[in-house]
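Q: Hi! First time doing this. I have a protein sequence and I read that you can turn it into a structure. Is that right? Here it is:
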Amino acid sequence: MDEVAASTAASVDVANPREAVRWRARRAFLMAWCLPATTATRTQHVSLKSAFGVHVLTALLVTLLVIILVNVPDSLANRTQIAHYVVAIEQDLISLWEELAQNWFFHSFLFVMTVLSIEAAFGLLALAIAPWGARDEPMRASLRQAFKTVWLQSAQALVVVLLVGGLGAVLETMERSWDASYEIPEPPTLVLPTKAAPGTPEYQEWQKAMDEYHAERGEWWWANYLAKPWYLRDRELFVVISGFVSALWVIWALLRAVGAPRDVSVLPRPPTCEWCGYNLTTIAMEGRCPECGESVASSLGPGVRSGTMWQRRKDIGRIRAWWPCTLEAISRPTRFGRQLRITPAGTDHRRFLAVHLPFAFLIGLAFVSALALIVGQSPGRGSFAGDIVLPTILFGCAVLAAMVAISLVSACIIGLYFRITERRNLLAPSAQAACYLATYMTLWTAFAVAEFVMIILHQQNRFLYNVADWIGVDGDLLGLAIWFVPNIALFIGYLTLIARITASTRYSNS
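A: Yes, that's right. Below is the predicted 3D structure, encoded as structure tokens:
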């Protein structure tokens, strides 16, 4: 038994992080956005207090950067000198302070509530990503790592604001400069005659003139739009795209950072029965558990928790490993859970989830394409890329991100539940379970998209509204209920499968 306990204690998920170069917390401002995993590994020694200091300093710098970027278009368009530009910023700060001084209690309350709301959002984000980097360790260690990662990685906000805000400021400045140098005469605005009361011939003539004015103004807008350079026609769309891409980058960086190898203190655990949790320290390997009657070898033998089929994909092939792993995780979750290794958890489950993300992206593309066909969407006078292609790609990325978010949140819910009921940190196995159920999640996503498309289709042909009138409910509310109820059931099924897989790791020795 002592050998088994020693081998269990030796299983630590460490990649020699102590040998890495240590960085100060302030290095996160330079390296967090481009080297998130390296930053996390080399700042393990940083305290929560220092990480929170980086977080607070980032908030102050972001606020100052936003004020600077807001004044950039006016200053550049008017070719204002730097001294005048600084004066404008000072005036904005003075005006803000004077406004706060006029009603300090209300603004102080609003400020405190805003700060608390932002910090609550960061706290929820830390809880959501905690399972991704959790190990077989005390719960406080996993949460500490998650909060420290979120606070240090918040320094990326400076890069995001600078890129997205800078792009928006530059494009707005260029558009103002273009409007000033290239101007198409705008149709004169019509004024309603004083004697043109509704129903009079004068009013009807004015109404006809207004229709012609709107048509002429539409042609003017279109001519003005076509005359602009391509990068100014849809400048708002470019800013939105840059913001969306930056958000995806931040999510990727957070997962890279929280899942980076780190030094983990081994928890001293006695050899226990995998089935009931009985202490087997004094029981021979050939014996049986006095509590449940299962053999000791089934809990402490060399073949216990040998890993999933996916972890042997290099030997048997990816397809042959993927199919039984997927099928067993869905149909036999308890048996599948007894294959998972807790120390070390490895990264194979993350790769299993990553394999399914391109399919989630394609599902998002198919949804927008089908919706455009149903409602008859066409680019019209706008660009095809701006009206069709780019929104389709963005929605595909949104579906991909939502799939990852639901997996993390579900793993967090189940992990916290077992921490309360079993008094053991099971965030790591709950994350493995959520990732190995990626096929379930992909099929669920496809079902949700297909169902939504069918609901829109039946709303277009009035069938759903006729049914709603027949049963006496609102048509939109009925469509929402038809979509919402089965998806809630599938979500509950997803949580149940994660819980059953995780429950099989409650008394894991390895």
